[in-house]
Amino acid sequence: MRLVILDDYDKTSEWAAKYVRNRMLDFKPGPDKYFVLGLPTGGTPKGMYKKLVEFYKQGVLSFKYVKTFNMDEYVNIPRDHPESYHSFMWDNLFKHIDILPENVHILDGNATDLDKECREYEEKITAAGGIELFIGGIGPDGHIAFNEPGSSLVSRTRVKSLTKDTIIANARFFGGDESKVPTESLTVGVGTVMDAREVMIIVTGANKAFALYKAVEEGVNHMWTVSAFQQHRRAIIICDEDATLELRVKTVKYFKGLMPVHNKLAADDDLSEVQRQKKK
Ligand code: PGA
Questions:
Q1: Atom 8, ligand 1: residue with shortest CA distance
Q2: What is the band of 35 on the pLDDT scale with cuts at 50, 70, 90?
Q3: Torsion angle of C-alpha atoms 278, 275, 262, 24, degrees rounded to 10
Q4: Among 9, 41, 44, 48, which residue has the most ligand 1 atoms within 8 Å of its CB, making it the best to mutate?
Q5: 237 pairs with which residues across the strands?
Q6: How far away, in angstroms, is 64 Cα from ligand 1 center?
Q7: Which protein residue has the closest C-alpha to ligand 1 atom 2?
Q8: What's the burial of 166, exposed, middle or buried (CB within 10 Å: 0-12/13-18/19+)?
Q9: Is the separation of the CB atoms in 194 and 232 below 8 Å?
């Protein structure tokens, strides 16, 4: 597992966006080769999405041959509700880029048969060739997507009840009123994310520090579902200084010592090459 430590939220967002940009450019998506992205919602990825939109507007990045699968969606919230994850994704990313609506996949929390919706979602991911890069955030309780503490680490897409902690954390999006937060969600499983060829987790803020410590320094444990990625062949966690507060100084120094190596992954180097190719 790689751990990349940046100064603050903005630097973390920028690094994450550059990393995604470089992965997409290296992949060279085309009509016969779609880049399949798994995507999160929440406050954490907003800065990264803003930067990806900038890359699109600068002509550096195109999403024409990109397919996306979102991690989760609330159950029983109208699709056009401002806090639905559909609204979030269109407002923060999709409406600003050249992705084709048919290539966007978000679970339908209003489907009449929710189990069928979940099963079909897994089938769609498989049909798309699997996910190349699954991006996630985590909750203060270490959840990945809505895989709350105690979720099976081999779980697949399914209906999940939200824990009290998550309802409290998400009340900020519903005028601070916990009673307005949906109590159920559809979510990809830990196993679904584990199947991605690469997993990238963004962790910012002191309120995630304990979860990051559990993810990095403690063992794999279903009570901290993000810890499962210790067993992923290609996992990268991108965090800010505040999120490292519970890590050992030794751990932080070790990973900071690797920054010159990690920074190459988010370098701007090959951009001139991209611009050159675009002009050809
Ligand atoms: P946040 O949510 O990015 O808004 O902190 C992350 C999560 O709960 O998974």
A1: 139
A2: very high
A3: -20
A4: 44
A5: 3, 201
A6: 27
A7: 42
A8: buried
A9: yes
Reported as a single tens digit per residue, the pLDDT across 104-141 is: 999 999 999 999 999 999 999 999 999 999 999 999 99
137: enclosing H helix or E strand: strand 133-137
Radius of gyration of the chain (CA): 18
207 lines ligand 1 (CB under 6 A): no
Whole-number pLDDT of residue 279: 47
What positions carry a catalytic annotation?
72, 141, 143, 148
Q: Which residue has the tokens 């988010």?
A: 266
The confidence band for 278, taking pLDDT boundaries of 50, 70 and 90, is: low
Distance (Å) from CA 30 to ligand 1 centroid: 32
Q: What whole-number distance in Å separates Cα of residue 32 and Cα of residue 270?
A: 23
Ligand 1 centroid to residue 44 C-alpha, Å: 6
Would you state the pLDDT for residue 200?
98
Residues 143/149, Cβ–Cβ less than 8 Å: yes
Instruction: In whole angstroms, give the CA distance from residue 29 to residue 18.
Output: 17
Q: For the whole prediction, is pTM greater than 0.85? A: yes
187 lines ligand 1 (CB under 6 A): no
Decide whether any atom of ligand 1 lies within 6 Å of the 61 Cβ. Answer: no
